């Protein structure tokens, strides 16, 4: 009996264990086929779409020995240049946007309802990848962190570490990125994920190059080659180490490292690359005998025949480095354009050839080679496109500016000279800006100085040219730079460049107030003592140098006043009053001068003044009627012939008998009806106002109608 009970308990335990295991298996089964399988399927479709949209990747790697190439692609904002190729753009993901959203939704369901299944780790990683492809770096980083923290030994841990590092680097969080790349290398070695390891090494090297630490960029590859037990992997990393040295211009070391690749077990592509770039390194070191030997070996080996275009690129580089026969080199280039169309390595050769002409200031020839180099997606594609665009714009702007300048020199009419001069100066200035972006400091100084010399000095926009010229010469000639900054602060203080120049020189805001106030006060004092010409000069200087200051319209007003009243020069007065109204239409001075200016223009042209501008008589007498202009208006004087009307109260009555005066006043107030009996309301009908022939005004007695004195509106009102 006891044995039966013992077996019964064992059976119950086994049954419970099988039940629990069965539940776990059932949950895994339903989770996979209902949700996780669809997540994987959607991600595969999305990545297939990305691969389809991406450019084809050649078997032979293309390296460019230009240590400054990355510096020219540097950006202060946004992802670093070496991370841009990893970002999926809006155009690439447009067709699969809903699939990526669906992955996130399905992953959220697994985390919410199936958190005990075996697919939680995969769901988190797929969600992180989906966020990454949608350029949502922070949510992707959070999901990677969640996976790394909760499941450190997961099979997805190396992928999560690498994706975490990518997110950090794209956000320019380089410190965190370095730490995560180091951890990625450790976990990838542990899990034997060599694909992750290679990508981590590459990112470490690119980051070190970006920060200018070349030795640190080489360290992970050397460590990987030393630790690797797989000769094929060792050959791959040795080739990447040699390529890195080749890219940074260390050709002496690069040729030795390329030769070491053949000590391991490289693929056919790796073997060809080791011979090709070793030959390129020898050619750049002027060891043409060795480079010819290696290139001849590649040309004669039939297994490398499919990559003959790359070998021919090596011949072009060898001939370019010899620089002994320009005509033959051009013949070889023409042959390559027809025999090896769209070869990637030949495109990079065209870029280097264009840089040769660019460095020798032959921009036209350089532009032609950059145009050919930008036809293929190579490491120099962006730089070639940028150089071609910059040189095209530079050529157009200089040619246009020279044409304008020649027209100015031959133009005798002087029509629109200031506008043409400013446009010419602007073209020279933009040419200088292009040279500044390209790093040609001597050309920058030349064009900035020329733009200021050509520009009209009375335009506030000229401050930009003078300020820029002062900025670029500051390192070489600080004294001259300070003098130019002072000129900017003096003559263009109200512009943004003038204010910035004052900050550089240590001036305060009071400098502007003191200067404009001094000019205006000087003009007022000169005006009082009768030195009108110098006063006009001071007023105009205040307006010209500080056009945004509140004293500018008042300065123009004073100039117009001097010409009108002191010089009796209506034409000049009209000019400055018109300038006042044009520049400052909302100022009180402009509003005041609207009517007087119209009167002056009519008088100056000899035309008859319209009624709206005619002057009003100076002397006006008050009408005795209660309402002027009304016909037969009732008089305010009591009718003495009315027997019912009592004699009005006089001041004497108020003094002699005040009680009587008060009584009479009370009687008048108490009988309002009687007060209205003597008023004829028909005579004061408002409708008769516009039918009256009675004049509004009349002259004082004894004055002739023709002797009216016409006085213009007073425009001398002081503010």
Describe it for me?
This protein has helices at 2-53, 69-72, 90-93, 97-113, 120-133, 137-150, 157-170, 174-191, 194-210, 214-227, 231-247, 251-261, 268-284, 288-300, 308-322, 326-339, 344-359, 363-373, 381-410, 417-438, 441-454, 462-472, 478-491, 496-505, 510-528, 532-545, 551-566, 570-583, 588-605, 651-656, 658-670, 672-675. It has 32 helices and no strands. It is 68% helix and 0% strand. With 719 residues, it is mainly alpha-helical. The relative contact order is 0.03. Among the domains are: 227-341, Tetratricopeptide repeat domain (Serine Threonine Protein Phosphatase 5, Tetratricopeptide repeat, Alpha Horseshoe); 411-505, Serine Threonine Protein Phosphatase 5, Tetratricopeptide repeat (Alpha Horseshoe); 510-613, Tetratricopeptide repeat domain (Serine Threonine Protein Phosphatase 5, Tetratricopeptide repeat, Alpha Horseshoe).
What is the strand and helix layout of this fold?
Elements: H1 2-53, H2 69-72, H3 90-93, H4 97-113, H5 120-133, H6 137-150, H7 157-170, H8 174-191, H9 194-210, H10 214-227, H11 231-247, H12 251-261, H13 268-284, H14 288-300, H15 308-322, H16 326-339, H17 344-359, H18 363-373, H19 381-410, H20 417-438, H21 441-454, H22 462-472, H23 478-491, H24 496-505, H25 510-528, H26 532-545, H27 551-566, H28 570-583, H29 588-605, H30 651-656, H31 658-670, H32 672-675
Helix pairs in contact: 1-4, 1-5, 4-5, 5-6, 5-7, 6-7, 7-8, 8-9, 9-10, 9-11, 10-11, 11-12, 11-13, 12-13, 13-14, 13-15, 14-15, 15-16, 15-17, 17-18, 18-19, 19-20, 20-21, 21-22, 22-23, 23-24, 25-26, 26-27, 27-28, 28-29
């Amino acid at each position: 009996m006891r044995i039966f009970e013992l077996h019964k308990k064992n059976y119950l335990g086994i049954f419970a264990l099988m039940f629990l295991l069965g539940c776990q298996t059932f949950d895994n089964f339903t989770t996979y086929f209902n949700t996780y399988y669809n997540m994987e399927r959607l991600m595969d479709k999305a990545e297939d779409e990305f691969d389809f949209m991406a450019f084809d990747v050649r078997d032979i790697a293309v390296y460019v020995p230009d240590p400054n190439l990355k510096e020219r692609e540097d950006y202060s904002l946004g992802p670093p240049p070496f991370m841009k190729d990893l970002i999926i753009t809006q155009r690439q993901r447009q067709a699969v946007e809903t699939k990526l959203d669906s992955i996130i939704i399905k992953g959220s369901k697994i985390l919410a309802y199936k958190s005990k299944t075996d697919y939680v780790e995969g769901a988190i990683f797929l969600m992180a990848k989906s966020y990454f492809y949608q350029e949502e770096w922070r949510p992707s980083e959070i999901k990677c962190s969640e996976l790394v923290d909760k499941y450190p030994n997961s099979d997805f841990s190396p992928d999560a570490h690498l994706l975490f590092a990518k997110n950090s680097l794209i956000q320019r969080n380089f410190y965190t990125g370095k730490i995560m790349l180091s951890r990625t290398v450790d976990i990838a070695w542990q899990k034997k994920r060599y694909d992750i390891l290679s990508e981590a090494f590459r990112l470490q090297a690119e980051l070190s190059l970006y920060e200018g630490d070349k030795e640190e960029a080489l360290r992970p590859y050397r460590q990987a080659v030393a630790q690797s037990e797989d000769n094929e992997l060792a050959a791959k990393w040795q080739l990447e180490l040699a390529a890195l040295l080749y890219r940074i211009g260390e050709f002496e070391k690069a040729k030795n490292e390329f030769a070491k690749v053949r000590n391991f077990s490289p693929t056919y592509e790796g073997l060809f690359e080791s011979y090709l770039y070793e030959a390129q390194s020898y050619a750049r070191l002027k060891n043409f005998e060795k480079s010819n030997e290696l290139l001849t070996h590649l040309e004669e080996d039939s297994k490398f025949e499919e990559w003959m275009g790359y070998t021919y690129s090596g011949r072009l580089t060898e001939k370019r480095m010899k620089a002994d026969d320009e005509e033959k080199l051009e013949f070889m280039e023409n042959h390559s354009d027809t025999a090896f169309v769209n070869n990637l390595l030949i495109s990079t050769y065209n870029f280097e050839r264009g840089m040769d002409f660019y460095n020798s200031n032959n921009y036209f020839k350089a532009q032609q080679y950059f145009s050919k180099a930008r036809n293929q997606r190579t490491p120099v594609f962006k730089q070639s496109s940028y150089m071609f665009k910059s040189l095209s714009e530079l050529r157009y702007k200089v040619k246009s500016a020279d044409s304008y300048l020649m027209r100015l020199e031959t133009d005798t009419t002087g029509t629109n000279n200031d506008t043409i001069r400013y446009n010419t100066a602007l073209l020279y200035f933009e040419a200088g800006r292009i040279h500044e972006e390209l790093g040609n400091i001597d050309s920058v100084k030349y064009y900035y100085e020329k733009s200021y010399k050509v520009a009209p000095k009375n335009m506030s926009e000229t401050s930009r040219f003078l300020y820029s010229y002062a900025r670029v010469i500051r390192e070489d000639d600080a004294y001259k730079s300070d003098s130019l900054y002072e000129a900017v602060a003096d003559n263009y203080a109200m512009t943004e460049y003038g204010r910035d120049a004052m900050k550089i020189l240590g001036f305060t805001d009071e400098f502007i107030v003191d200067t404009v106030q001094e000019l205006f006060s000087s003009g007022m004092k000169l005006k009082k003592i009768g030195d009108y010409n110098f006063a006009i000069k001071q007023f105009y200087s205040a307006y010209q140098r500080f056009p945004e200051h509140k004293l500018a319209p008042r300065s123009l007003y004073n100039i117009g006043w001097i010409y009108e009243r002191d010089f009796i020069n209506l034409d000049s007065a009209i000019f400055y009053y018109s300038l006042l109204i044009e520049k400052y239409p909302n100022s009180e001075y402009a509003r005041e001068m609207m009517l007087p200016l119209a009167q002056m223009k009519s008088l100056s042209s000899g035309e008859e003044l319209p009624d709206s501008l005619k002057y009003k008589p100076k002397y006006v007498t008050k009408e005795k009627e209660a309402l002027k202009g009304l016909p037969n208006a009732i008089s305010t004087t009591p009718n003495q012939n009315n027997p019912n009307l009592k004699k009005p109260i006089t001041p004497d009555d108020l003094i002699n008998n005040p009680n009587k005066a008060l009584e009479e006043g009370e009687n008048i107030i108490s009988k309002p009806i009687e007060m209205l009996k003597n008023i004829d309301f028909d005579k004061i009908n408002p409708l008769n106002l516009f039918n009256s022939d009675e004049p509004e005004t009349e002259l004082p007695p004894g004055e002739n109608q023709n002797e009216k004195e016409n006085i213009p509106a007073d425009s001398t009102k002081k503010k």
